[in-house]
Amino acid sequence: MTETVIQVAYLIAAFLFITALRALGRPDSARRGMQLAAFGMAVAVAATLLHARIVTYEWIAIGAVLGAAAGYPLGMWVPMTAMPQRIALSHAFGALAATLVGVGEYSHDLAVGAITRTHVLALSFEVLLGSLTVTGSAMAFGKLQEILPGRPVTFPYQNIVNLVLVAAGVGCLAWLIAYPIDARVFVSMIVIAAVVGVLFVLPIGGADMPVVVSLLNSYAGLAAVATGFAIDNNILIIVGALDGLSGLILSLAMSKAMNRSFANVLFGAFGADGSVASAEAAGGEMSETNSENAALRLAYAERVIMVPGYGLAVSQAQHQMRELGELIQKRGGEVRYAIHPVAGRMPGHMNVLLAEAGVPYDKLIDMDEINERFAETDVAVVVGANDVVNPAAQTNRASPIFGMPILKVADAKSVLVLKRGRGKGFSGVDNDLFVDPKTSMLFGDARESLLDLGAEVKSA
Ligand code: NAP
Q: Is residue 452 among the annotated active site residues?
């Protein structure tokens, strides 16, 4: 009877997860999607607590308290701009849990002398993928948090070393299927996978880390699938498969949005050094403006497009952007918001920020659609965006961002750029848009500048 209740609860949880994923695909339903997923997780955890194999609840309670104590600050206090490294850390913990379950199951099987070849196969996959994800995600966290050097780190014969290690890991797995009780090989396999995780992330540049984090998410999902098979738990298999596939789809979508092949992201060295493209940038003088003059243009513009980027997130200026947009609209101007798929530091970053600030969803326009509108736009207001509006991505073959689709801001009749100074974008290359004769630069923190513009537009 209890087993039936558990399986029905798992089915409900799986339905909730799938519905949640669907809802997460649109900004207006994303919040509901998160709530559905959280509810699904609560159902799955509650059902698992009924399981007959649970020996004592004390350790579970201690784990839950410790997990909540660590999870609450991670969820509530980490700023949006640090989300990629926070997610990397979560993957490392998730994968560590899967690896520990694998180690626990293996030692239990050894102790009771009940180890089988199929079981050891599932456990081996679990610890291989789990261990690789733990160290890979920890490396990604270190690079994103700038604890480790963000540049790609390479050394002679790296590919050969990697191949030998992967072959050694697969060799251990094959050995274990033949001799399941060889615990030394089981431990060696975990260590080898941990080293592969480090070496896999080492040669990838900091700019590509979000793609790597998403791929590691996929590995963590597959480790969960293997855990599900190993401990005969259906919800782990379903959730792991959803996680594994959605992580892979997200990595592919991010690579596509940067117009890079997946192989190039993983084995190229993008973002390592912008000096070539910098040297080839046309150069020229930036034309500086002040908030009074800039506001006059906005106050009398008929069509305005706001272009948010990473700097908006840094200065948390989304509310000020929305307020400025409303002021322009009150004066009769039409305002839209251009959303580049990889603006900011994670997919959907700008959607999340602007939706949180209350910008209506129908004003958030995706890149392909908004690009057709720039030519008829009086002022394009670029707020803390750089790479996603860099014309070099279309014109400079030597640029590391060449081929990345951009927002065609330069097609607008005039461009106003709000940024703190002459800092480069994440890829580290110069941006000729800033020296274009139709561009005016308003230097300062995005939030302050938007506040000033708002005040000036009001009094214009
Ligand atoms: P970006 O190229 O990183 O440029 C951000 C700009 O914001 C900088 O030039 C900086 O210039 C300015 N800035 C920083 N803090 C500011 C503040 N407080 N006030 C005003 N301006 C500020 O940003 P992006 O155009 O959004 O491009 C995103 C980049 O991340 C792309 O290269 C993309 O490929 C990469 N990426 C994104 C994702 C994703 O999923 N979103 C994933 C992987 C990689 P100053 O220092 O002069 O102020």
A: no
How many other CB atoms sit within 10 Å of the CB of residue 219?
Answer: 25
Q: Which of 109, 208, 243, 387 is catalytic?
A: 387
49 and 64 in contact (C-beta within 8 Å)? no
40-80 residue pLDDT tens:
999 999 999 998 788 889 999 999 999 999 989 988 888 87
Taking the model in full, what pTM does it have?
A: 0.79
Taking a C-beta distance cutoff of 8 angstroms, is the pair 136, 97 a contact? Answer: no
Radius of gyration of the chain (CA): 25
Share of the chain above pLDDT 70, in %: 96
> Distance (Å, rounded) from C-alpha 151 to C-alpha 162?
19
What pLDDT, on a 0 to 100 scale, did the predictor assign at position 276? Answer: 42
pLDDT digits (tens, 9 = 90+) for 317-369: 999 999 999 999 999 999 999 999 889 988 788 998 998 899 998 999 999 99
Report the separation in Å between the CA atom of 75 and the middle of ligand 1, taken as the mean of its atom positions: 23
- The reply to whether ligand 1 has any atom less than 6 angstroms from the CB of 423 is yes
Q: In which residue are the tokens 């561009």 written? A: 439
Half-sphere exposure of 58 (CA within 13 A, CB side): 1
Is residue 343 within 6 Å of ligand 1 at its C-beta? yes
Q: Which pLDDT score is estimated for 261?
A: 75
Q: For the segment 251-303, what is each residue's pLDDT rounded down to a tens digit?
A: 888 888 777 777 777 766 544 444 444 444 556 789 999 999 999 999 999 99
SS3 state of residue 302: coil
Q: Rounded CA gap, 149 and 281, in Å?
A: 26
* DSSP strand pairing (334-339 vs 379-383): unpaired
C-alpha 460/C-alpha 455 separation (Å) is 9
SS3 172: helix
Q: How far apart are CA 277 and CA 420, in angstroms?
A: 22
Rounded Cα–Cα distance for residues 447 and 357 (Å):
13
